[in-house]
Specification:
Layout (H helix, E strand, L loop, with lengths): L2 H11 L1 H19 L17 H4 L6 H9 L1 H22 L1 H11 L4 H12 L6 H11 L5 H8 L13 H20 L1 H8 L3 H9 L4 H12 L1 H12 L7 H7 L5 H4 L2 H11 L3 H30 L5
């Protein structure tokens, strides 16, 4: 039986599975792969009336404009993008891991399920609603200022949302709150696959709950942690556009303006599509390089990698 016959037989045998897979494949082809064709406008002076093929070729001119003529904005948006992601990695990445370890130690099943349900709920709040809550809570007459004043920690209310120094903590902190429970699911699944006999052996050796978590649970989920860390580092140059766009204002551009919002203003509002495509392409290339680098380092030092 040749390969084509084997393929045909497999398609017939698993046709229902392939039919279920078809919408996902179509989605990625239509919205992720076919649009790659349009990346060439980053190297052209794109004019919608002339189309992609009719627009004149300018080579690296748009990249030169970004790095040379707009150098002030370049380093500001790169700095802000990286800092927000670094803060999120430092404080946000370990949070669901710690939460999963703690939740695993809860033996009362009803209490455990209740905690899980409560922790998952913020994930389903839309970005618009979430930012609306943030703006209300952190306004000058909002709940946070009222609590701080009632505790005697403030004499005058703080305008959190117009103070550049508060943008990053609020952005990262609200993200941790929203995604803590949801991101812990994959670690709880990894914990459930750990052999119970390892805990029994540790218990016989005199290990308490803390040492079991430290020497059995944590090493057991380490490959999962490494894979998730590689993927997270690979998106270090990306910050959610919708949330930043809804939260920031001209007073907080100093610390809030990131690559995605800058591309939106330059590419769409100012209709410089080639410039926006060039900046977006640069951002994607950096992310790709970070994924490859982190994966190679992980393979070298831990023998765990994506490929």
């Amino acid at each position: 039986m040749n390969k084509w016959q084997e393929l045909k037989k497999d398609l017939i045998r698993n046709r229902n599975l392939y039919l279920m897979l078809l919408p996902i494949v179509a989605y990625y082809l239509i919205f992720h792969y076919i649009p790659i064709y349009g990346l060439q406008i980053a190297f052209k002076d794109f004019n919608p009336a002339k189309g992609i093929w009719g627009s004149p070729w300018v080579g690296l001119e748009k990249f030169r404009e970004f790095f040379v003529y707009d150098s002030f904005y370049v380093w500001r948006i790169i700095r802000n993008t990286i800092l927000i992601n670094v803060y999120d990695i430092i404080f946000g990445f370990p949070a669901p891991i710690i939460f999963a370890l703690l939740l695993n130690e809860v033996k009362n099943s009803i209490y455990k399920r209740t905690l899980q349900t409560i922790s998952y709920m913020p994930h389903f709040i839309s970005t618009v609603v979430l930012v609306g809550i943030i703006l209300d809570f952190f306004s000058r007459d909002g709940l946070i200022n009222q609590i701080l004043k009632s505790l005697g920690l403030l004499s005058e209310p703080i305008s959190f949302m117009t103070e550049p120094g508060w943008f990053r903590p609020i952005y990262v902190g609200s993200g941790i709150w929203q995604q803590l429970g949801w991101n812990s699911i994959i670690y709880l699944a990894a914990i459930s696959n750990i052999d119970p006999q390892l805990y029994e052996a540790a218990l016989i050796d005199g290990a308490g709950r803390f040492r079991q978590a430290l020497y059995v649970t944590l090493p057991g989920i380490l490959p999962t942690i490494i894979i998730m860390f590689i993927l997270r580092v690979g998106s270090i140059m990306n910050v959610g556009f919708e949330k930043v766009f809804l939260m920031y204002n001209p007073l907080t551009y100093e610390t809030a303006d990131v690559i995605s919002t800058y591309v939106y203003r330059k590419g769409l509002l100012e209709m410089d599509y080639s410039y926006g495509a060039a900046v977006g392409l640069f951002n994607s290339l950096i992310n790709f390089a970070l994924v490859v680098l982190t994966n190679q380092l992980s393979k070298k030092f831990t023998e765990t990698s994506l490929w």
